[in-house]
Amino acid sequence: MYDFFSDFESFTESWWPYLISVFITVISATRFYFGGTYCPSSARIDGKTVIITGGARGIGLATAKQLTNRGANVILAVRNVEKGLKALNEIRETNKTASVQIKLVDISDLASIRNFAEGIKNEHDKIDVLINNAGIIGSKAQDEYEPVFTTNYLGPFLLTHLMLPLLAKSDNGRVINVSALAHYNGKLDLEGNFGKSSTPQEAFAKSKLALTVFTKYIAQLHKSTNITFNSVSPGLVRNTGHWETFSSLNSSFLTKLSVWPWVWLFMKTPKQGCQSIVYLTVEPSLHKVTGCYFSDCEIKEPAEIVNDFNVARCLYEKTCKIVALDSEDIKN
Ligand SMILES: NC(=O)c1ccc[n+]([C@@H]2O[C@H](COP(=O)([O-])OP(=O)(O)OC[C@H]3O[C@@H](n4cnc5c(N)ncnc54)[C@H](OP(=O)(O)O)[C@@H]3O)[C@@H](O)[C@H]2O)c1
Ligand SMILES: *[C@@H]1O[C@H](CO)[C@@H](O)[C@H](O)[C@H]1NC(C)=O
Ligand SMILES: *[C@@H]1O[C@H](CO)[C@@H](O)[C@H](O)[C@H]1NC(C)=O
Ligand SMILES: *[C@@H]1O[C@H](CO)[C@@H](O)[C@H](O)[C@H]1NC(C)=O
Ligand SMILES: *[C@@H]1O[C@H](CO)[C@@H](O)[C@H](O)[C@H]1NC(C)=O
Questions:
Q1: What gap in Å lies between CA 332 and CA 329, rounded to an integer?
Q2: Is residue 257 part of a domain?
Q3: What are the entry keywords (predicted)?
Q4: What whole-number distance in Å separates Cα of residue 46 and Cα of residue 78?
Q5: Does the Cβ of 97 fall within 6 Å of ligand 2?
């Protein structure tokens, strides 16, 4: 007869239990380390109105869940009704009393952004937080990458300016730009057509660098107001559209199967990825912190060029022309 107990005894007397527990500990420690820092603040923001662009999936959706749970009224600015409604239902499934609505906008289309801003102005007297999260990462299948620059940089640029009058009505308006580690690899060549790139990597890095340069510059322009401007890097996050686009490039099922354990081990979940954004949104002590770059809930040094005031001013002036912002909009 099969003797379970003597088998079990010989197992427990062997090295296996030690090896297995060491293995599990190493795996858990690695996951914990690469998962990044959780928002150290438990502050609530009851009744505050927060706009999250691209809130239908990934990091934006994870942020929306965290913020509705802390009492915020969240406006998901999405480009697709069905996806928006799906996200809305997903939030309400986890919290029946969550205060959340969807509004349509295409961040790559400047006219659509102006429309969206009009709609918001008609319905709201003030906005407390604007999270510029919508973004795309180009794929090699494309032959030009200007949409990346428009979506990740020009769109948030215009939207931020159009929302300034409403943000100024808040006691402490906050604008948060979702940047990326990739901005360190970005190059800004302000001669000629600076939105052009020849690879998706270049386009993504450039758009995020421009966004980060701006964050610092606009923060200086609005120093005397109660509005703060910061950018954050979420880290490397899986289960997002970005990751799908990036990883589906020409990989076979077998390749995917072999990278999956590494992805699982080293990349953040959207919930882990959104923690710095949540922290910047809710933490009361940050009410005067502006023009900074955050990663893992801490201020970090961004790429060097971000501190170059002349580059920033040149970029700012060129961008105002491209998005056709008149001085009227900027003053507000
Ligand atoms: N995942 C990462 O590892 C990583 C790393 C660094 C930075 N980031 C940044 O984090 C932010 C969120 O990214 P994610 O990883 O959560 O990616 P995601 O899952 O692809 O989410 C991006 C969201 O933006 C929306 N969006 C894209 N273009 C839009 C447009 N023209 N108008 C309106 N909405 C638009 C998408 O809408 P649809 O659902 O309709 O496509 C989607 O909901 C992005 O700014 C991204 O660059 C991500
Ligand atoms: C559910 O949402 C409400 C309203 O935003 C919030 O006050 C409450 O704390 C949330 N519940 C949980 C369990 O997070
Ligand atoms: C976000 O980036 C845009 C440029 O795309 C800029 O105009 C805006 O001021 C930035 N906001 C913050 C908070 O950095
Ligand atoms: C900033 O907020 C403080 C306190 O809420 C208020 O007294 C002050 O008038 C505000 N300043 C501006 C420029 O709105
Ligand atoms: C995949 O690889 C093939 C051949 O190497 C190439 O022709 C094709 O454009 C690639 N597809 C993508 C999406 O990069």
A1: 6
A2: yes
A3: Membrane, Oxidoreductase, Transmembrane, Transmembrane helix
A4: 23
A5: yes
249 lines ligand 5 (CB under 6 A): yes
Q: Residue 158 falls within a domain, yes or no?
A: yes
Amino acid (one-letter) located at 71 = G
For residues 268 and 34, what is the distance between their CA atoms, to the nearest angstrom? 7
User: Is residue 4 assigned to a domain?
Assistant: no
Looking up residue 207, the CATH number of its domain turns out to be 3.40.50.720
In this predicted structure, which of 25-29, 201-205, 246-250, 278-282 has the lowest mean pLDDT? 246-250
Digit-coded pLDDT (tens) for 127-153: 999 999 998 887 766 667 788 888 889
At 328 the pLDDT is 47
90 vs 263, higher pLDDT: 90
Atom of ligand 5 minimally distant from the CA of 141: 13
Domains in the chain, number: 1
The response to whether residue 179 sits with its C-beta less than 6 Å from ligand 2 reads no
Cα 245 to Cα 142: distance, rounded to the nearest angstrom: 12
> Which ligand lies nearest the alpha carbon of 141?
5
Q: Which domain holds residue 53?
A: 36-330
Give the per-residue pLDDT at 19. Answer: 86
In eight-state DSSP terms, residue 181 is: G
Take atom 2 of ligand 2 and give the residue whose Cα is closest: 98
How many angstroms separate the alpha carbon of residue 225 from the centre of ligand 4? 7
